[in-house]
Here is the input.
Amino acid sequence: MASPRYDFHIHTKYLGCGNATMEIPAIVRECERLGVTCLGITDHLNSLDKLELHTPIRRDIETLQTDIEVYFGVELNFTGCDQGFPFSEAIKMRTGFQFAIGGIHSAYLQQYDARKLVEIQHRHHLATCRDPLVQVLVHPYWFSRGQFEAGGWPKFDSMQLVPKRFVRELGQTARETNTAIEINGEAILSSPHSSERFLEEYLEFLSILAEEGVVFSVGSDAHDLRHLATIEDTWRAVERLHLPPDRVWRPEGKPMTGGE
Here is the structure.
């Protein structure tokens, strides 16, 4: 069964999340070439002092001429271990964000401990699902290489470190809270740092979530125009998991631009 051609995790140059190639018109042209039918722009909001930097993104989306449906979203990060997201209903209304994706972006450890590492990730995954303002949990069990390399920590290269009970609990919580779980292109499925073994284990992780009735979101997580093509790996994963179209998430409401 063919996957819907969506991409709901794309960065831009406007906040420095993406490089200079990631301008809104260029992103949309490349998505048109790839066959994307609906997309979301989702730059980071890690602190409120960066909020106004999202305004030019909205402006450029509103001036687009395209048949692709384009939504204005945001990617949220926790402000600290077991803290919240810098987001509220008032901020959403003020900026015009149409949806929010979010998740954990740090190990929150001073010393390496695999058990604690996974426990912290799991705790924040559940907290993301339980936040009523977040529609998508992003890239579960992705880790930035910087902290690992700086500390001389071993690479996180096995989903066997994640207890099956954690996977089942995440799936059940996501289903109960109507939170989609992201299948991520650039950071996980297409990453040159992901081994073949890890990718097979990650697909098994996704299949267990699917058994729990999870709805999935797909996102390239592109920071470079060339990396938008990693969305094709997420589409292939959807097809491998045999997910029907109604198990692939898209934002509610009308897009900011495009479509009819």
Observations:
- The beta strands are 6-10, 38-45, 69-77, 99-103, 136-137, 180-184, 216-219.
- The chain is about 35% helix and 15% strand.
- The radius of gyration is 17 Å.
- The longest strand covers residues 69-77.
